[in-house]
From TrEMBL:
Domain Cas12f1-like TNB: 306-372
Signal peptide: none
Coiled-coil portions: none
Biological classification of the source: Archaea, Methanobacteriati, Methanobacteriota, Stenosarchaea group, Halobacteria
GO molecular function, one term: DNA binding
Protein name: Transposase
């Protein structure tokens, strides 16, 4: 039996250079409208003592000049987002959180940043035969009735974009990408199992996955090689805003995105085959600021978009009915995944964990992944090393194959000329 649901696919824009200026204009316009609406909220609040909902904001601003910079539904989406942000803030204040701040203005100094622009039914047209989406401009930004933004997109090779319900243009900090929301059928016959997998994200090994009696390791060598190459080529550019520099940045981001897609897809497929229903991922929020990895380590850590990868993993897992939970990973690298003993000195080398209490010898990243897994299983009793933990020392290694753009077992990649 199939049920209806939605899936959001992240797509890169192949003709980014041609459409960037137009998308920048919409992103800046979205920030301006947000700020005008934010000021309007202050004024209404001062006069009435109430926070306006999105209906009131729309009534106040529908004739404002900036409202027509965007498609009407896109402008409405911004006002709905602001009203929802105020509702969330007010609810937290009602629950006693006096430190929470109300939604602020969107500005970087005197400049407006690029805000996400949402396109609903009337704001886009999808051409699935040519992998293109036409995005509408607002009346003020149009140069004639036929002026629109035609984005050529690329998604994960195994994704079929159809029944599009909504499109969001999102600025990543370096380029625009499209988040495409599709209506899909979910087959109940593919319901997940009840097992839990833990994932430890890192630098040398991009991801280590522990399932309780099995482990998978995804080295990040291909990603680091790309980063090193593009950093070296980027350093040769005299002007950071030159076409060559921008082309290198886009190519680097495209290859990184493909790596994320390939690894997240493989993890989900492997977890589904092992009857996993829940994936626990180490949450790195705060780790970047609180941990000193050395100059080179910090550069790598800050350069990798762990949060973006986790979002990809989550929507791919949802297609299999698998839930993804973020788990605080503080202390998981110091504790023994077998007996629970905590000792910072037991990680004797970067890739090796040895527990002096129970004698466990494990891959350090797999041990961390197992501890993350156990945080979702609070009743899981440590057995003092009585069970077979050999899988923690010898995980199956899966490599990103640059020749095919897919992840495969190490022996298959290594054996090919």
């Amino acid at each position: 039996m199939a049920n209806q649901g939605t899936r959001t696919y992240v797509a890169s824009i192949r003709n980014h250079q041609q459409v960037r200026d137009d998308l920048d204009s919409l992103g800046f316009a979205a920030s301006k409208l947000w700020n005008i609406a934010r000021w309007t909220c202050d004024r209404i609040w001062a006069e009435t003592g109430t926070i306006p909902d999105h209906g009131v904001l729309k009534a106040y601003l529908k004739n404002h000049e900036r409202y027509a910079d965007l498609n009407a539904q896109s402008s409405q989406a911004i006002l709905e987002e602001l009203a929802e942000a105020f509702d969330s803030w007010y609810a937290l204040r009602e629950n006693g959180d006096e430190n929470v701040n109300p939604p602020g203005y969107r500005k970087h100094g005197d400049d407006h940043p690029r805000s996400t622009v949402t396109f609903k039914e009337d704001g886009f047209k999808h051409d699935p035969d040519h992998d293109r989406i036409r995005l509408s401009k607002g009346r003020n930004l149009k140069d004639g009735r036929r002026d629109f933004i035609l984005c050529e997109y690329a998604v994960d090779p195994d994704v079929t974009v159809q029944n599009v319900q909504q499109v969001r243009a999102v600025w990543t900090g370096t380029e625009w990408e499209l988040h495409i929301v599709c209506n899909v059928e979910i087959d109940d016959s593919d319901a997940p199992g009840d097992r839990v997998a833990g994932i430890d994200l890192g630098i040398c090994n991009f991801a280590a996955v522990a399932v309780g009696d099995d482990a998978l390791l995804y080295p990040g060598g291909a990603l680091k090689e790309d980063d090193y190459y593009f950093q070296k080529e980027r350093a040769k550019c005299n002007d950071n805003s030159s076409r060559k520099a921008q082309r290198l940045d886009r190519k680097r981001e495209t290859r990184r995105t493909h790596f994320f897609h390939a690894v997240s897809k493989d993890i989900v497929v492997e977890c589904a085959a092992r009857n996993v229903g829940t994936i626990a991922v180490g949450d790195l929020n705060g780790i970047r600021e609180d941990t000193d990895w050395g100059d080179h380590g910090n550069l790598d850590l800050h350069g990798w978009a762990f949060d973006r990868f986790t979002k990809m993993l989550a929507y791919k897992a949802a297609e299999h009915g698998i839930s993804v939970e973020r788990v605080d990973e503080r202390g998981t690298s110091k504790s023994c995944g077998s007996c629970g003993t905590t000792d910072g000195s037991q990680r004797v080398e970067r890739g090796l964990y040895v527990c002096e209490e129970c004698g466990l010898v494990a891959n350090a990243d797999v041990n961390g992944a197992e501890n993350i897994r156990q945080k979702v299983l609070p009743n899981l009793a440590c057995d003092g090393g009585d069970r077979d933990n050999g899988w923690m020392a010898q995980p199956a290694v899966r490599l990103f194959d640059k020749s095919t753009g897919r992840v495969r077992p190490q022996e298959q990649v290594a054996c090919e000329p």
